[in-house]
Amino acid sequence: MDEIKKIIEKGDIVALTGAGISAESGIPTFRGKEGLWANYNPSVYANIPGLMGVFLFRPSRLKQFLLDIFETTVKARPNRAHYKLAELEEDGLLNSIITQNIDNLHQEAGSENVIELHGNIFRFRCRSCDKTSFMHKSEQKEFIEKIKRTSRTELINLILPRCECGGRYRPDVVLFGESLPEGELRKAYRKAEKANTLLMIGTSGVVYPAASLPFNASRQNINIIEINKEPTSLSHLADFTIRDKASTGMEEV
Ligand code: NAD
Ligand code: ZN
Fold this sequence. Notes:
alpha/beta
């Protein structure tokens, strides 16, 4: 622990977070037994053609899918791990957070430098002009009520609303087969390269290109700390391992 303390005190920490950091906030992990994909086949529900098919042939199932996602994420609140990362940033020790999560919980905990590799469920982006619009806390509950009430034809206007340019917005999340936002990815590589320490929390390390960041860090002899309940495919890269829940692990750090 003394050694971890020394590393942390040197600052220039970059955190890489995955679904595990939000598990204690009530959002099931991707591969967990309670995860969304245990009920919905990702090859259908995690890509646009699949979702269009569900809309056409089973609209009530699409409604349930949207409700399952939004009810979980709207209810979720940051936990100690999110808050501790925000504190490290405020203390000038943490440079940025690179997250694979789409739940907005780092920002809600007060973190400012958050690089979102897979987008944000509360942000919508126009597919034609790239303009974005953020759904604030006050609008989120109403959005859920609207999903419940809406007719099949209105459902499309609700999740893919019209932009003033004539195009349509869509939820700004990266679906299967889509490429990651280039700017965010570039920023992530740049930040990770310059870090003194990479702090990996709750990521299984099987989703690329995010998982390549620790491999690069390891080649550059950057200190790597892993906080995870279970061993992962990145564990062998870690100089220090805290085999615990994200909240308790971050308290220790
Ligand atoms: P993953 O589901 O593949 O792995 C989660 C990891 O977290 C596992 O290694 C598990 O051992 C660990 N874990 C579970 N509970 C934990 C806890 N309480 N404390 C510490 N560790 C814990 O997650 P991933 O690597 O992030 O990849 C999943 C993909 O799915 C990501 O690309 C992400 O975009 C998406 N996703 C996001 C959310 C979210 O926004 N909260 C939730 C589910 C999935
Ligand atoms: Zn537009």
